[in-house]
Amino acid sequence: MNYKVSVVIRVYNEEKHIREVLESLKNQTYKNFETIILDSESTDSTIDIAKEYDVVIKKIKKSDFNYSYASNKCVEYATGDIVCFLSGHSVPLKRTYLDEINNIFQNPKVGACYGDVIALPDGSFTEKLFNGLGHLKNKLRVKSGIEFETEIHPGIFSCSNASARRHLLLKHPFAEELGKGGEDIEVAHRIIGEGFVIAFVPDLLTKHSHGSGLFKFIKEYKAWGVMWDEVQNYINKDNYESNKK
């Protein structure tokens, strides 16, 4: 089955890399897809660049933005069977990126999938080292090329490079209480709770980085730990409230 894939891209002032993202999509071998740009009132040339391509452009107010709200709007606007999340600086590495996503979802047990990220050429040395070594470790660990996950963990279903069945995202929208981060982990928890697996494919690669040097990267790494704790607390509280009913 050739699923229709909705590639959704949340943007705000992404003129630096958005052309590279859209060029990668334009050159995909898989053609049954649409591209939706969700813009949060960019003030640079992001939208002018996007208009050069075959994309649908939707807008939200910058003041309304959080990751969950924006992702839910993307799902709302999508018309495909599969929703593929990228950021304005997440560049699919291979021309077969969407082909591979379609192939992954041929397995009816897969509710969502995600891949690794490596740093963009202008990423920092720290990002290149951390992401490069992480990808190498994952390739060595996942010898079959695909791992079916049934438990959440930090980084699962990270929406800089992730896809899911749209009907599951409509049933389990991103929690706006987690709109500053970690909302993708919580959705993965709900998808697994439906009896599906999350497929991790290390070679489903995008180039993605923020140019964070060592000290900023350490600060971000610590923030990821705090976010993980917050997600676990949210899930535990939600489970407790459900059990009370």
How would you characterize this protein structure?
Helix 7 (183-193) packs across helix 8. It is built from 8 helices and 9 strands. Strands 1, 2, 3, 4, 5, 6, 7, 8 and 9 form a 9-stranded mixed beta sheet that branches. The chain has 245 residues and is an alpha/beta fold. 37% of the residues are buried. It has one domain (5-244): Spore Coat Polysaccharide Biosynthesis Protein SpsA, Chain A (Alpha-Beta Complex), CATH 3.90.550. Helices cover 40% and strands 23% of the residues. It has helices at 18-26, 46-50, 67-77, 97-104, 125-141, 166-171, 183-193, 214-244, and strands at 5-11, 33-39, 56-59, 82-87, 90-92, 110-118, 147-149, 161-165, 197-208.
| Form type | globular
Question: Which structural class fits the helix and strand makeup?
Answer: alpha/beta
List the domain count as a whole number.
Answer: 1
User: Unreliable stretches, pLDDT < 50, 5 or more residues?
Assistant: none
- CATH top level class name: Alpha Beta
Order of helices and strands: EHEHEHEEHEHEEHHEH
CATH superfamily, by name, is Spore Coat Polysaccharide Biosynthesis Protein SpsA, Chain A
Radius of gyration: 17 Å
Overall pLDDT confidence: 94
Tell me the strand percentage band: 15-25%
| Alpha-carbon distance between the two ends | 40 Å
Share of helix among residues? 40-55%
**CATH fold assignment:** Spore Coat Polysaccharide Biosynthesis Protein SpsA, Chain A
- In DSSP terms (H or I, runs of 4 or more residues), the helix count works out at 8
CATH architecture: Alpha-Beta Complex
Main pleated-sheet profile: 9 strands, mixed
The total count of strands amounts to 9
